[in-house]
Amino acid sequence: MSNFCQDRDLLSIEPELFADGNPCQTLASGTDGIIAGTTFSSTGSDFETAAVQAGMALHVAGGSLETAKTYEVVSVDSATQLTVSRLRTNDDDDPLAPVPGTDLGFSIRTFAPQIRTVSQTLAEKLRQVEEVAGIAAADFADSAQLRMTAACGTLAAVFVTRSENATSADANWAKAEHYRTRFERLRLQLRLAVDADGDGLAEQTRTLGNVTLRRT
Fold first, then answer.
1. Which of 6, 63, 124, 213 gives 20 to 30 Å between its CA and that of 41?
2. Which of 196, 26, 216 shows the shortest CA–CA distance to 109?
3. What mean pLDDT is predicted for residues 76-81?
4. Residue 197 lies in a domain
5. Which of 110, 132, 147 is the last residue of a domain?
6. Beta strand spans in 37-80 (E)
């Protein structure tokens, strides 16, 4: 099953999310990072073995950079080299060159486990729609609406984790509730259009907010 959003989608909503490593996974890190144009390299790393993927986040600090910055990973070009970009409007836009630098401290970070869990929740709703309406899962297309729903669900999970053992006044609690409410609202409003014959027109639409299971 494919995930319904990426780390770059979370970054577009919460720009400072990856500055704090809690509770994301760090797949690779070092102090020998080099940014030249849209190329990021680290001779001491093995990005392929670390399972770094496009859409993840590169967090850099130190060296010639005055402040920490987070960029999106566009592609993994080799074991020691990535194509990176400042956050783009769309993931198929040309990469935007980050601030250049050498001897950079860096971390490749991801919230993949949280994204996976939320994507599985939404996929189960899709399965229910398929069972009720007889719509094949292959007929559903990705959309910005679906990505935003998955991103808000993921952010809710992230901020719930960050707010553990915190007081009720902690800002993470407020963010967790905000994104939980937003996720539920978006999920109930989510409409999936099915163009089964590929003519560009939707023959059927279904909502994930009103699904009835059929007994067999």
1. 6
2. 26
3. 98
4. yes
5. 110
6. 39-41, 57-61, 69-78
The answer to whether the CB of 33 falls within 8 A of the CB of 106 is yes
Domain of residue 162 covers: 113-207
41 part of a folded domain = yes
* Number of domains observed in the structure of the chain: 2
Q: Are residues 117 and 196 in the same domain?
A: yes
Provide the pLDDT for residue 74.
Answer: 98
State the alpha helices, DSSP H only, in 6-143. Answer: 7-13, 112-133
Lookup result for tokens 């729903």: 149
Q: Which residue shows structure tokens 């971390």?
A: 107
For the segment 68-80, the average pLDDT, to the nearest whole number, is 96
Stated as kind and residue range, the H or E segment containing 175 is: helix 171-189
Of the candidates 83, 96, 110, 113, which has an alpha carbon nearest to the alpha carbon of residue 29?
110
The answer to whether the beta carbons of residues 207 and 188 sit under 8 Å apart is yes
**168 or 19, which is more confident:** 19
In angstroms, the CA 80 to CA 52 distance is 11
Q: Which residue has the tokens 């007081």?
A: 167
Last residue of one domain, picked from the residues 110, 126, 152: 110
Categorise residue 200: left if φ over 0, alpha if ψ from -120 to 50, beta otherwise. left
